[in-house]
Amino acid sequence: MEYDLLELQEKMREILKPKRYLHSLGVQYTCAALAMRYDCNLMSAQVAGILHDAAKNYDEDEQIRRCEKHQIPITKVEREQPYLLHGKLGAYYAKTKYHVTDEEILSAIAYHTTGKPKMTILEKIVFLSDYIEPSRKLIPGLVEIRKLAFEDLDLAVYTTLHNTLNYLKSNEQTIDNTTYTAYNYYKELVGAQLKD
Ligand SMILES: [Fe+2]
Ligand SMILES: [Fe+2]
Fold it and tell me: 3-state SS string over 51-115?
């Protein structure tokens, strides 16, 4: 499937606030760089990257309303933390507004916030790029994860999930079950490496 990246960029520039547009461009190019490193389809990675926050311009009530309108199921945690919905809703808009048909791209968009167990390379690339792209505020551990992303994909995913959970806990936010299951999965996967 061919996509017009310039057209997708133009659409995102129209609907997103300037900072979020810059973030989305950063995610697109970081996805491209990681896709080169890990032999992933460059076009798929960039399309997922530029579109991943396509639903984040709506406020939280509006995200709930739109999910209900499009019959996208909402979990209890998502109702408490509606920002989690922009992944699923973004995937829905990628399909219906921006004509993305590749299921893997749609899934990478849907799970970019929480991650999930057994992610494909593309899903891991989008999940990590969202966290490490150049315009992200420099939080503790970010410099290390930026390097690690290009050295060991699974270890970088694990470390990102670990830091995300710590951040959410310290802010007393309800944690999505998918993030927990993803964390436990990658902890087990990289466990052997960590013990060395
Ligand atoms: Fe996002
Ligand atoms: Fe994002």
Answer: HCCCCCCCCHHHHHHHHHHCCCCCCHHHHHCHHHHHHHHHHHHHHHCCCCCCHHHHHHHHCCCCC
